[in-house]
Amino acid sequence: MVVKGTKICVVFFLLFVAVFATVSFALSDRHDVMFAEEEQDVRKMVEECHQSCQGSQGEQQRPQCFQTCMQKRLGDRGTSRGRGDPRRPERTRRTDRQQHQSNTPYVFEDRHFTARLENEHGNVRVLQKFTDRSELFQGIEKYRVAFLEAEPQTFVVPNHWDADALIFVANGQGTITLIEENSRQSNNIKRGDLFRVPAGIPAYLINTDSNERLVLAKILHSVSVPGDLQFFSMGDGNPESSFYNAFSKEVIQAAFDASSFTFLYPKIHKFRKQGIFKKATEEQIRSMAGKEESRIWPFGERKERGTHSIYKKEPSVANENGVLHEVDSDDFPDIRDINVAISLFNITRGSMAGPFYNTKATQVLMVTNGIGSFEMACPHLSNQATRGGEINPTYERVSSELRQGTVVVIPAGHPVVIEASGEENLEVIGFGLNSDKNEWFALAGRDNVVSQWEDEAMELTFGYPASEVKRVIEKQSKKLFFKAPVRGGRAFA
Amino acid sequence: MVVKGTKICVVFFLLFVAVFATVSFALSDRHDVMFAEEEQDVRKMVEECHQSCQGSQGEQQRPQCFQTCMQKRLGDRGTSRGRGDPRRPERTRRTDRQQHQSNTPYVFEDRHFTARLENEHGNVRVLQKFTDRSELFQGIEKYRVAFLEAEPQTFVVPNHWDADALIFVANGQGTITLIEENSRQSNNIKRGDLFRVPAGIPAYLINTDSNERLVLAKILHSVSVPGDLQFFSMGDGNPESSFYNAFSKEVIQAAFDASSFTFLYPKIHKFRKQGIFKKATEEQIRSMAGKEESRIWPFGERKERGTHSIYKKEPSVANENGVLHEVDSDDFPDIRDINVAISLFNITRGSMAGPFYNTKATQVLMVTNGIGSFEMACPHLSNQATRGGEINPTYERVSSELRQGTVVVIPAGHPVVIEASGEENLEVIGFGLNSDKNEWFALAGRDNVVSQWEDEAMELTFGYPASEVKRVIEKQSKKLFFKAPVRGGRAFA
Amino acid sequence: MVVKGTKICVVFFLLFVAVFATVSFALSDRHDVMFAEEEQDVRKMVEECHQSCQGSQGEQQRPQCFQTCMQKRLGDRGTSRGRGDPRRPERTRRTDRQQHQSNTPYVFEDRHFTARLENEHGNVRVLQKFTDRSELFQGIEKYRVAFLEAEPQTFVVPNHWDADALIFVANGQGTITLIEENSRQSNNIKRGDLFRVPAGIPAYLINTDSNERLVLAKILHSVSVPGDLQFFSMGDGNPESSFYNAFSKEVIQAAFDASSFTFLYPKIHKFRKQGIFKKATEEQIRSMAGKEESRIWPFGERKERGTHSIYKKEPSVANENGVLHEVDSDDFPDIRDINVAISLFNITRGSMAGPFYNTKATQVLMVTNGIGSFEMACPHLSNQATRGGEINPTYERVSSELRQGTVVVIPAGHPVVIEASGEENLEVIGFGLNSDKNEWFALAGRDNVVSQWEDEAMELTFGYPASEVKRVIEKQSKKLFFKAPVRGGRAFA
C-alpha cells in the first residue's frame, strides 16, 4: 500500500515535473519568439548601441545607456531620437586595430554600402540610408551616397533615379549623356569634374579610357520617399530588367502600334550578358565620345546642363601641407536647388587639415585616395540640451582610420581634424549638405576665429593676460594645413 | 489507508490540474491582452500588409514578409519605413473582381475618405492622411485630398482651414468669396476653373446653378501639423459648432461690448437646420452671384486672388484619342508657393494615355468622370537600394480599375498607362505634388525619350542594330494618346 | 504507511506550492521587467496622457483614450500622431488652482525647461523639444525656445550653437559681439531690441548695466538634427569644457606650432570659477561696451549683422487697453531665412487682446512681465478630419494662467484671447513660426472679419437678419484691445 501510494505520488511527481518543464519552456519560449521576430538589422543596431555604451559611458551611466538600447529593441523609438554617444577613443582604437572597423555611427565602411549592382565590367555601391544607421542623421535623411566604378571601355545603359544627383569624377575620363524629350546633351568628363543629373532624367555613361577605371562619387537627393531610391532602366538584355516588361503585352503593343516587339523579348536572350555595365567596342566608343555639343532635334529646346571642374577656380587655401578647392552655387549654379557645396582636400603626406568647423552644413567626407585618420570633437550627449538636467558641456573624441572608400559624416558646428599618413597623400572629397550660407572657420593657424576676440574676452574666458593668449594662438603662420604630429608606427595616437 | 492516500493524491492531482489550467490561461491571457490593446486601424494596417504579402511574394519571401507585418504590430516602425510590396497582378485582379476593391496602397476608394461632413444639401469628403495608408507616402505627407459637392442653390457657411487649398471645379458653377481684414473678393467659378484659398482665409461658396451639382476637387497643403487638418467655422445654427462658443461668455461679451449676444445662442435653434450646407433662396443667390469685382472697404488693401481656367491655354497634347491640358506656376502664379501643378486628362473611350512618367512630381490622380483602368511599373522592393543585397532590378505591375471618385498616387519616376473603357470617355484631374522643375516624358509614340538615344546606345543596351530598334519605336506617330488594346469583356487583361 | 504516504504527498504539495509561487512570480516578473525598462520620461508622458483623458473625455470615450495612452507605452507611435485632446476647462482649472500647473500640452511652465546651465552670475534655460511634449508640435519641431539671464556686469564666454538664433531683449542692456573669420562686429543692445546670431557663428555677450539683469528671450532654429541643439565653447576655466580638449595633445600642439599650450590646461584651474558666466571688472566692461562699429581686420569682409528695435516702427494697434508692436522680414531682413515674425503685446491691466487668430503662423508666446490668462478655441479631436467618421465640428476651450516665464503655443488658425490681470499690465512677446505670408485677423471689434461678409451670408449662416447681426458685431469700436470682463477673485472664470 505504501508502495502503491508511493507509486502514485511518484507518478504525480513526474507529471508535475513535466508540467513545470512545459511551463518554463513556454515562459522562455515567449522570449525567444520575440527575439525571433526581430529583424536582422534591428539586432545589429542594438549590438552597436551596446558597444557604444561600453565604450563611452562611465560606470554610473552604463545601466541607463543599456536601457536605452533595450528600448530600441522593444520598439520605443521615442528615446532614440537624439544624439548618439560618442566613443571612448582608446576602446574604439583597440577594437579598430583588431577588426579594422569602426563602431562610431559617424564612420561608414564598405560593409555599410548595403545595395550593390555589379558585373565584371563595373559596379555601383549605394550607402545605406543614413537614418538606418542612426537617428543622429535625421537632418540629412533625404541624402544618399553612392560610388560608381566602370572598367575601361564600358558602357552604362540608360537609366533614371527618383533622386537628384551631384556627381564628382574621382578618377578617369568618360562621356555622360543626358536625354530629354527633344534633346540630348553629351559632355566629356574627367577627373575633378562635377556634373548634375536631375531626378527622372535618363542618362548613360561611357568610360572612354583604355586603361583607367572611371570612378564617380555621388550625392543623391531623394525627391519621393525621403531617403529612399528607386532605379528605373529600360533593360540590359534581360527582359525582366526593363520597366516596359511590367505592362501587359497588349498595352505595349498598342502604345507602339506594333504587332511584334521583339527587341524587348529577344529569343536569344540567354546569350546576352546581363547587368547594366556593357563592354563597348573601340568603334562604338569613338563614335559616342567627344561630342561636346548638344545635338538638338529640330525645333527642340536646349537646357543648360554642363560640367564644372573643381580645379577651375584657384584653390581657397594652398601651402606645402595641403590644398583646398571649393565649389558653391555661385561657381556652379546647377547645384543651387539641391543645396550642396563641394570641397576637395588634398593633404600632403605627414600633414593635417584643421581643426576647423562648418557653421551650417553637415559635411559628408569620402576618401578617394590614400590613408589617414580624423578626430572630431563631439559634445557629450547626456549633458546637452536635448534631455533633462544641468548642461555641463564636455566633449568627447570621435576618431577613426581613413582609407579609400571610407565615408565620414561631420555634423554642423563640430570641430574636426583630418590627418594624412606619413607615407601617402590623402585625398578627400567633401559634400556639404544643407550648405546655404555655410562658412567654415579655422580654429588654429592664420585667420583662426579666436584671434578676433577682444583682449578682455580672452582674459575673462581663459584667465590669462591677452598678450599671452595671443602669443600662443598667433604662432602658427600657416592657414588650415599644418605639419602633422609624428606618430610612431600607428596611424593615430 | 490506501484509499485515504489515494484520496489525498487525487486531491493533489485536481489541485495540480487547476494550477496548470490557471497558468496556461495566464500565459495565453498575456497574448490576448496585447491584442486587445491594439487600435483598430493598426490591425487594419496589418491585415492589408498580410494580404499584400500573399499577393506579391513568392513562397520563399512570404515568411519574411509576414515577419515585417508582425513587427508593425509590435510597434517596430523602423522596418516599416520603405517601399511597400507591389502586387502580383493576377491575384489582385481576382480579388478586385470579387470585391470591386483594390488592396494596392496606391489606389484609394470611397472607403478611404475617412472624414465626412454632410447633410441633404451637400457633403465634404476628406481622404485619409497618406501616411496612415502607407509609409510609402512620407514624401507627400503634408498634402491631403478632398471632394466637395453642393446641391443646386446651396450656400456653404464661411469657414477656414489650417491648410492652403488648391481647388479644381470638376462640375457646375458657383461663386466663391474670400474674406480678409478690410476686403472681400468674390469670383464666379465654373467647370475647369482653378482657384486658391490660402490657409486661414475665411471663405464661403454658393452653387448658383438651378440644376447642376457643384463638384470641387481639392488638394490641401497643411501648414501646422504635417498632414493634419483643422476646420474652423463660426457656426451653422448650432451654437456648439461655432468657435466663439469655446470662449467664456464674459470674454465674448467684453469683446463685443454687448450685454447680450443672442445671435450666437438662438432660442429657437432647435428649428435651425444644422450643417454647413444651407439652402438659399433664389433672391439670395441672385444677390450674391455675379460680383466679379472685389468690394473694397475704404482704405483697404486689395490682394490678387483670382481664378484660372485650365482651358485658357491651348492643350499640351490633343489628338483623336485624347486631350491634355496643363497649368503650372508660370500660368497661374498663385500656385507657386504650394508647389503643385495641374494636369487634366480627357481620354476618349477605347483610348489610352502613356506610358509616360514624371521626373520629380508625385501625381495624385482623381477620376472625375467615366470608367477605365491604369497600370504602373513599380520597382520590386526587396531588390532595390533601400535594404541590403544585390540590386537586381525587376518591375512589378500595379493595376486597378478606375471609376468616378477613385484616387491614385503615381510616385515620381514611375511609368504609368491610363486607359479609358470602351464605353465612356475617362476624365482624370492630376495634381502634381512637389512639382518644381518637373517634366513628364513619353515612353512610346512621338517624342518618346528612347528615340533620343544615340545609335550605339541602342545597340549596346538592347543587343539589336539601331535601325531595327528605331523601326519599332518610331512606328507610332501619335503623341501620348493612343488607341487602347481591345479587351474582351473585362476592363483590363 | 499512510503516515509515510501522507508525508510524501505533503512534501509534494509543498514542492508544488513552491513551483506555483515561482511560476506566478515569473509571470508577473515579465510584466515588471517591462515596466522597469521604461524610461522616466515615457512614464511621465503616459501620466500626462492619462490625466488629459480624465480631464477631457466623456465616459464613453475614456476607455479608448486610455487605450491610446497604453499604446504609447508599448511603443506604438502610429497612433500618437495626430492632435491631442483638449481639456475640459473646469477640471483643468481646479487642478490649476491646486497645483499652479497646467496639463494642457500647449502651456509650458518652468519645469518644462529641461536643460539648464547656471552659476551665480547667470543662467540659460532651454525649453524641452516640442515633440517631446506632444506630437501636436511636429510642424514646429525644428524650433527651440530658451531664456538667458545675466547678472549686472557679467560676461558670457564665446560660444556657438548648431542653430540659428533670433533674440529679443526683454530687459536690461548690454553688448553682443559676433566673430567671423576676419572680422568682429559689436552692437549695443537694450530692451526691445531684436538681433540674430546665425548658426555656428561664435558670439559673446556682456551685461553692461550696474543694476539691471539682462534678460534675453530666444527662438532657435536647428540646422543639424531637427529640434536638437549642441553647444560648443572654447572653455570657461575648466579644461574639460573646451572642445579643444577633445583632440589629442599632439594634434593641438602641431596645429598651434607650440610645444606648450598652457592656457588651455592651467595648473591653477581649481581656483578658476567654472561656468560660462563670468564677473567682469568695471574697466573691462567700459573697454568692451559702446563699440558700435565693426572692427575690421585688414582686407576682411564685413557682413551686415545689426540689431533692430521693436519700437522703431509705430505700433500696429494702440489704444488705452493695449499696444501691439510687430516686426517682420520687411522691417528686419535678417529674419527672412528663419521664417519667424515677432509681435510684442503690452496689455494694460484689466484689459484683453482678441479674440484673434493667425492664418499661417504658429505663435509661441513668452510672458516677459505680469500676470494674466488666456483662452483658446481648439477643434475637438475625435471629430476632426484626422481619423474616421463624420465631422461634427465642436470646439473646446484650452485655458491657463499666465505669469512671467510661461510659454504658450498657439497653432495656426486657432482663435485666442489673452487677458491681463486686474492688478498688473501683461507683457507678452510672440514669435510667429513659419510666418511667411501670415496675417492675423480680429474676430471682434473694429476691422473684424465677420463684418466683411455680405448680408446674405450673415442671414444664411446665423438665421438672423443681417441688420441685427451687424448691430451686434459693429458695436465694439476699439480694435484688438478691449476692456476685460471683471472677474471676482480668480484670474479667469
TrEMBL record, chains A, B, C:
<protein>
    <recommendedName>
        <fullName>Cupin type-1 domain-containing protein</fullName>
    </recommendedName>
</protein>
<keyword id="KW-0732">Signal</keyword>
<dbReference type="InterPro" id="IPR050253">
    <property type="entry name" value="Seed_Storage-Functional"/>
</dbReference>
<dbReference type="Pfam" id="PF00190">
    <property type="entry name" value="Cupin_1"/>
</dbReference>
<feature type="signal peptide">
    <location>
        <begin position="1"/>
        <end position="28"/>
    </location>
</feature>
<feature type="region of interest" description="Disordered">
    <location>
        <begin position="75"/>
        <end position="102"/>
    </location>
</feature>
<dbReference type="InterPro" id="IPR006045">
    <property type="entry name" value="Cupin_1"/>
</dbReference>
<dbReference type="InterPro" id="IPR011051">
    <property type="entry name" value="RmlC_Cupin_sf"/>
</dbReference>
<feature type="domain" description="Cupin type-1">
    <location>
        <begin position="308"/>
        <end position="470"/>
    </location>
</feature>
<feature type="compositionally biased region" description="Basic and acidic residues">
    <location>
        <begin position="75"/>
        <end position="99"/>
    </location>
</feature>
<feature type="domain" description="Cupin type-1">
    <location>
        <begin position="111"/>
        <end position="264"/>
    </location>
</feature>
<dbReference type="InterPro" id="IPR014710">
    <property type="entry name" value="RmlC-like_jellyroll"/>
</dbReference>
